[in-house]
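quick one before i forget lol
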Amino acid sequence: MKAVLIAGPTASGKSALALALARRLGGVVVNVDSMQVYRDLRVLSARPTPEEEAALPHRLYGHVDGAENHSAMRHVADVAALLAGLDARGVRPVLVGGTGLYFKALTDGFSAIPPVPEAVRARFRARVEGLDAAALHAELAEVDPAMAQRLRPGDRMRLMRALEVFEATGRSLASFQGERRPGPLAGAALLRLFVSPDRETVRARIDARFETMMAQGALDEAERLRARRLDPLLPVMRAHGVPGLIAHLEGRISRNEAVARGQADTRAYAKRQMTWFRHQMRGWEAVAPELALPTALARLGLRD
């Protein structure tokens, strides 16, 4: 078996499972979470603690600056390079995270969309600054009607993405989506587990964890991000909790409102993660948190 893959909604206990398995296997924990790549978000992305990272090798955590627009394509390239080195040394990777799109790209491949150069992205965003989603949709309908039909008129982020790709390449995003490159784990023998707690348990854990994050310095983390004056459309600025905490720091909402907003956004995200698993992650085994470790050990032929 080439690798162990562990997915699940946020606050499901998947990171603790990955740590336990990597310890038993003498392996390496590899991040597959789109927010835990950012060094600016140790607290608010619930990255492994420094003590956990020191106990066992962890890779692809906190290695990207918040000013960068990280992508699934870049993550796949980073994982592919890492896996090649681990495979040469006979080290088992335990890949863990909550970003279903990244897992799907690793196992099933991804669309061959070229990266948008930063100069093009900056020029495009300066041009459309201040335009609402309806105006962006109207512009997309003129240059790329195929994508305009696919996207909701109010989905600003996806409209921006489609327009950026057209600006950079002169081609419709739809034309690239039919071209796929194989992922580095395509066709490999894999153990794929989705840690699936019941919904009320996840909601309670999310709310409690956000309060813990506040005690661990989440507000300071948000203040450091605010001080950088980054583009608000960057992923790091839209991480769960960040917009609300910055609004609180700027005096627009109370601390309690900021916490409630962060909790609500995270709960909604967990719901989307569960939906993604049901519809997109075929071939994965759903397992309750309390059964996850013994199930994984059994599938790997190890004793509990």
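fyi The chain has two domains: 3-111+181-299, 118-178.
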